[in-house]
């Protein structure tokens, strides 16, 4: 019998909840892996991955109120949007650019999330533009006396953009309920961290905007949960915004169009794999007796079936009509 | 009917809309206690409080971006850029975000936001307090650009912009703020965005313009009238998307067209108006389409000699209109 301490109970997480978190992490990973297969088989033109960042994404999402809070995700946040309620089938509809893709009806590249019914703000390709949007949501909610928070996520490369600084400063001045989580995977495509920022950490930047900044192990979903939960409590108590830097790994190339072997060594890639949160969290759940070999197998089977079904459904779903490209530039007469 | 200045019409529209709809709020630099550097938001802070008349940090991109977020949430923000010249840091938010939110989300999200900005020269504002920036935004489907000329149009169009379900750039000519006065109805009224307006009927030549150019054209037309030249003047009011039907109709009416903008000539709004006329009116024209515009230099210089050289005035319009009439 292992002597591993049960950490999640102390955080107020039930066994069911941590198992659900693990399931969502595994689902995100397996969807992502399927995307690469489809891309390499020539079936979808583009993939941009969440692999290596699932723990941060799911740990943060489950610390929020998934029925009320808003999120402004970035392109790697498959784990976040799954936690917020996007279905596997919807993710594949986007990958295949089909008409029923709820993100954009097949208009945007995969990874450009948005789904109003789940309060996932629509996103674009220029990075960090979503940060002021999350601040605006928090401002509007505060004006209405709605006790909710917004979460915005981005990569550490994006933390050099003006909108990062303008947005955090705005949130700090007006003490808005915004949680900003930088998923630091240490690369902006090929440019390593030390060529991107000169401060000790991204979290250090929080002090300049009057908010606490915390660095957290992004491979540990429970630690991310704890820190984001704390930030959420502060937000709802009117104590203002928080900056969180989750240290993660990027287990894949930047995208399906990138070859990271050109700028990362085999040793480095091998080292990253040792830190894979899917392995460590699965081990933790076994150690504390929440997960068993049988349960894990059943879970894998269930997810594989879900992904197979979603892939097939999305592949067979219709594209938008060509002239649908003309729709929805402005509000259309006679209702939307 | 009350007589109001152009800027009073701005304030009056904002006040009415904020009284009518709690979701309308104003944000920008110095818009609160000070009431704006031009006093466009004067009195609103006292009436509606600081949360609805919000002084922001000096950050144009965040003013636009925070407004976009609030609009997606369901508010109707009216953001002020202190000068149109300073809108440039917000271009990414306006073009990449606001203009594309409805389209890229396949009609799931929308962005009902207004961005107001004073533009235009003739106020000793030099390069960075005089510019016309509309052409930067005038090929971005998803945006609407309104540039009214009279207090009546300001009020009706600003109300329409605030009630619009899509993002609207509302450019106010800063020299018109106190120079131009006019009658404004007391009752609640809205004018249609996307519709040009005939400001004067005439038979010999057509002038198509917007903003302060409308007043210069009217003044010049009065002088030409003494010599028996009758001018037809069309005020575009919305410069994007353009009211093609009214442009074609006005061009065909006289067959002689002068297009007037205070902006630099090449690539201006008038380049597109000219293209619309050439596509549709070939056999109705009696002369080549003429353009009167600023020279193709970066912007308006400070020294009065050079500023006057750049800027439109009634004399320049009169000369150009007379030349066209005599063609």
How are the SSEs placed, and which strands pair?
The complex is a heterodimer of chains A (336) and B (327).
Chain A: H1 15-40, H2 54-61, E1 70-72, H3 78-83, H4 88-95, H5 130-143, E2 150-155, H6 162-173, E3 178-184, E4 187-188, E5 191-192, E6 213-217, H7 221-236, E7 242-247, H8 266-274, H9 277-287, H10 293-316
Parallel strand pairs in A: 1-2, 2-3, 3-7, 6-7
Antiparallel strand pairs in A: 4-5
Chain B: E1 2-5, H1 6-20, E2 24-28, H2 44-48, E3 53-55, H3 60-73, E4 76-80, H4 91-97, H5 101-104, E5 114-119, H6 134-137, E6 144-146, H7 151-163, E7 168-173, H8 176-179, E8 181-184, E9 197-200, E10 205-209, H9 212-226, E11 231-235, E12 238-240, H10 244-254, E13 257-264, H11 269-280, E14 290-294, H12 304-310, H13 314-326
Parallel strand pairs in B: 2-3, 2-4, 4-5, 5-7, 6-7, 10-11, 10-13, 13-14
Antiparallel strand pairs in B: 1-8, 6-12, 9-11
Helix pairs in contact in B: 1-7, 3-4, 9-13, 10-11
Give an overview in words:
The complex is a heterodimer of chains A (336) and B (327). By secondary structure, chain A is α/β, with parallel strands linked by helices. Chain A contains 10 helices and 7 strands. In chain A, strands 1-2-3-7-6 form a 5-stranded parallel β-sheet, with helices on both faces. In chain A, helix 1 crosses helix 2 (54-61). Chain A starts with 14 loop residues before the first helix and ends in a 20-residue tail after the last helix. Chain B has helices at residues 6-20, 44-48, 60-73, 91-97, 101-104, 134-137, 151-163, 176-179, 212-226, 244-254, 269-280, 304-310, 314-326; strands at 2-5, 24-28, 53-55, 76-80, 114-119, 144-146, 168-173, 181-184, 197-200, 205-209, 231-235, 238-240, 257-264, 290-294. Chain B folds into 2 domains: 2-184, Thiamin diphosphate (ThDP)-binding fold, Pyr/PP domains (Rossmann fold); 197-326, 3-Layer(aba) Sandwich (Rossmann fold). In chain B, helix 3 runs parallel beside helix 4 (91-97) and helix 9 (212-226) crosses helix 13 (314-326). Chain B is an alpha/beta fold. Chain A binds chain B through residues 70, 72, 101-108, 112, 114-116, 121-122, 124-126, 129, 131-141, 143, 150, 162-163, 166-167, 169-170, 173, 327-332, 336, and chain B through 25, 51-52, 56-57, 59, 61-62, 64-75, 77, 89, 92-93, 96-97, 100-110, 141-142, 144, 164-166.
């Amino acid at each position: 019998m292992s002597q591993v301490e049960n950490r999640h109970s102390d955080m107020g997480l039930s066994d069911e909840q941590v198992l659900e978190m693990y399931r969502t992490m595994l689902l995100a990973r397996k969807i992502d892996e399927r995307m690469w297969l489809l891309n390499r088989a020539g079936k979808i033109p583009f993939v941009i991955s969440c692999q290596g960042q699932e723990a941060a994404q799911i740990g943060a999402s489950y610390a929020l109120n998934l029925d009320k809070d808003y999120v402004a995700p970035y392109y790697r946040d498959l784990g976040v949007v799954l936690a917020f309620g996007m279905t596997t089938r919807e993710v594949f509809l986007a990958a295949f650019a089909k008409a029923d893709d709820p993100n954009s009806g097949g208009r945007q590249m995969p990874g450009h999330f948005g789904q109003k019914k789940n309060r996932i703000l629509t996103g674009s390709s220029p990075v960090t533009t979503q940060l002021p949007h999350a601040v605006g949501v928090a401002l509007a909610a505060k004006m209405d006396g709605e006790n909710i928070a917004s979460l915005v996520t981005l990569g550490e490369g994006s933390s050099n953009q003006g909108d990062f600084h303008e947005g955090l400063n705005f949130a700090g001045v007006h003490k808005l309920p915004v949680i900003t989580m930088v998923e630091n995977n240490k690369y902006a495509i090929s440019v390593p961290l030390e060529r991107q920022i000169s401060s000790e950490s991204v979290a250090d930047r929080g002090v300049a905007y009057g908010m606490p900044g915390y660095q957290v192990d992004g491979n540990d979903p429970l630690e991310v949960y704890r820190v984001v939960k704390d930030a959420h409590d502060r937000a709802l108590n009117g104590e203002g915004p928080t900056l969180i830097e989750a240290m993660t790994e990027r287990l894949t190339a930047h995208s399906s169009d990138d070859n990271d072997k050109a700028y990362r060594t085999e040793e480095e890639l091998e080292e990253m794999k040792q830190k894979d949160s899917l392995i460590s969290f699965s081990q933790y759940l076994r150690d504390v007796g929440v997960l068993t070999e049988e349960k894990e197998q059943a879970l894998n089977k269930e997810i594989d079936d879900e992904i197979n079904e979603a892939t097939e459904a999305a592949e067979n779903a219709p594209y938008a009509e060509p002239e649908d490209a003309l729709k929805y530039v402005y509000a259309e007469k006679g209702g939307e | 009917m009350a007589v109001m200045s152009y800027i009073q019409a701005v304030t009056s529209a904002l006040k009415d809309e904020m009284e009518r709809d709690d979701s309308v709020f104003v944000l920008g630099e110095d818009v609160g206690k000070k009431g704006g550097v031009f006093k466009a938001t004067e009195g609103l802070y006292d009436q509606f409080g600081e949360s609805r008349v919000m002084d922001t940090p000096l950050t144009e991109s965040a003013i636009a971006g925070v407004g976009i977020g609030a609009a997606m949430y369901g508010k109707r923000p009216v953001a002020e850029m202190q000068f149109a010249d300073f809108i440039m840091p917000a271009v990414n938010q306006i073009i990449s975000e606001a203009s594309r939110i409805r389209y890229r989300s396949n009609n799931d999200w929308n962005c009902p936001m207004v961005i107001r900005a004073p533009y235009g020269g003739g106020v000793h504002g030099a390069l960075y307090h005089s510019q016309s920036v509309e052409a930067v935004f005038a090929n971005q489907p998803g945006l609407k650009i309104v540039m009214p000329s009279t207090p009546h149009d300001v009020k009706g169009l600003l109300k329409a912009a605030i009630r619009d379900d899509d993002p609207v750039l509302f450019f106010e000519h800063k020299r018109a703020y106190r120079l131009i006065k006019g009658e404004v109805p007391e009752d609640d009224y809205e004018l249609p965005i996307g519709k040009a307006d005939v400001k004067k009927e005439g038979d010999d030549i057509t002038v198509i313009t917007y903003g302060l150019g409308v007043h210069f054209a009217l003044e010049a037309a009065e002088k030409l009238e003494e010599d028996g030249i009758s001018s037809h003047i069309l005020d575009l009011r919305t410069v994007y998307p353009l009211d093609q039907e009214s442009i074609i109709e006005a061009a065909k009416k006289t067959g002689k067209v002068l297009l007037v903008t205070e902006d630099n000539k090449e690539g201006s709004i008038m380049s597109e108006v000219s293209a619309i006329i050439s596509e549709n009116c070939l056999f109705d024209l009696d002369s080549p389409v003429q353009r009167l515009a600023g020279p193709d230099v970066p912007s308006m210089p400070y020294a009065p000699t050079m500023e006057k050289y750049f800027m439109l005035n009634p004399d320049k319009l009169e000369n150009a209109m007379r030349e066209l009439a005599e063609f």
